[in-house]
Amino acid sequence: MARAIIRATGLYTPPEIITNAELVVAFNAYAERINRERAAEIEAGTFTALTPSSEEFIEKASGIKQRFVLEKSGVLDPNRMYPRFKERADDELSIEAEIAVLAGRDALARADRDPKDVDGVICSSANMQRPYPAMAIEIQQALGTSGWGYDMNVACSSATFAIEAAANAVKSGSARSVLVISPEITSAHLEWRDRDCHFIFGDVATAVLVERVEDDEAFDGWEILGTRLITQFSNAIRNNFGFINRSEDSDPNARDKTFRQEGRKVFKEVCPMAAEHIEGHLKDLGFTPATVRRFWLHQANLNMNLLIARKLLGHDPSADEAPVILDQYANTASAGSIIAFHQHQADLKAGEVGVICSFGAGYSIGSVVVRRHAV
Ligand code: CO8
């Protein structure tokens, strides 16, 4: 019986940082401008004045201190409030593929693998730049990998769901090795003019190289002991942007065409679901939370992670038990738990077990239980 392993991971971190202080200055300048322009409506009671954002609130409510973005000048321009990207010709590498390729190359270099050894690319993220051709096929061509490529989207759970697909492909023998890549350009679908969510997201790309090993084969890497996925429909996190918009004659700039959520509701509903999901998955594999060396949790909100880990462990988790990267990266949708795994796994010893878990829009939850191997 063959096994699926994570051989290596890769990370691309964008060059530009927006601190909470910079973000709040830009938002408050925007709010002041709108309040000035709409002073008569505010006076007449037909428009509610915008309230300023605050650094203190952002850090306390979320744990986020800064975020990386591909382009910050557009986001911080109070007359614009979204990134500035130059349109690329069809024969140029698209921006989402470009960051995906950089993360993919990083994973291949760490695994010391030739692109030709990879049989499949799954591009799995919360948003694809276009409907077709599949982003994954463009990435496949740019990387020079063999076989096939296809796209997946399960919002924040895109990476864990794709790891299950990759693990099944290598175990069944339909591929020897599959690269799961999650390019997340959240800055282009975040509403930076909404005080309730303008601080939440950042850009990044991650890659996970899933390979097949035979049962008696010794290897360096992470054995995938099990994957478990669950979904339950909810409108609490939603984005209505899509190809039907034109035929509906709906406003492409309306608020519902970018990310929106009921943050409190998400918090209350998803935390117990995620804790129960992880506990059940571990139990069926013969583990308890106490026997897990590390939890690489989805990085949406620090308080959310503390609550989930507390439900599992019965105490506040240390940074060693449940590492945090969202203070630096913010919420990077599907990439968050993979960045945590990428940056905080080298110190684990052979035989130690960990859990990668994502949760988010859908709702969707995906867990991957892994065990360290070393030769
Ligand atoms: N500055 C100052 N005050 C603020 C601000 C601000 N920026 N924003 C809100 N406030 C105020 C509110 O007005 C409110 O005031 P009052 O009490 O007077 O009414 C007060 O602060 C409290 O507001 P909230 O109740 O909204 O604050 P919370 O403590 O709930 O914190 C959070 C808000 C941080 C959003 C929190 O609810 C949370 O993290 N929830 C979970 C979110 C989550 O995990 N969502 C998952 C989404 S990710 C996903 O699935 C991927 C989607 C695809 C990617 C999209 C990319 C763009």
From TrEMBL:
Residues 150-217 form the Beta-ketoacyl-[acyl-carrier-protein] synthase III N-terminal domain. It comes from Rivibacter subsaxonicus. GO terms for molecular function: 3-oxoacyl-[acyl-carrier-protein] synthase activity. This is Beta-ketodecanoyl-[acyl-carrier-protein] synthase. The lineage of its organism: Bacteria, Pseudomonadati, Pseudomonadota, Betaproteobacteria, Burkholderiales. GO terms for biological process: fatty acid biosynthetic process; secondary metabolite biosynthetic process. Residues 282-371 form the Beta-ketoacyl-[acyl-carrier-protein] synthase III C-terminal domain. CDD domains: KAS_III (cd00830). Pfam families: ACP_syn_III, ACP_syn_III_C. Keywords: Acyltransferase, Transferase.
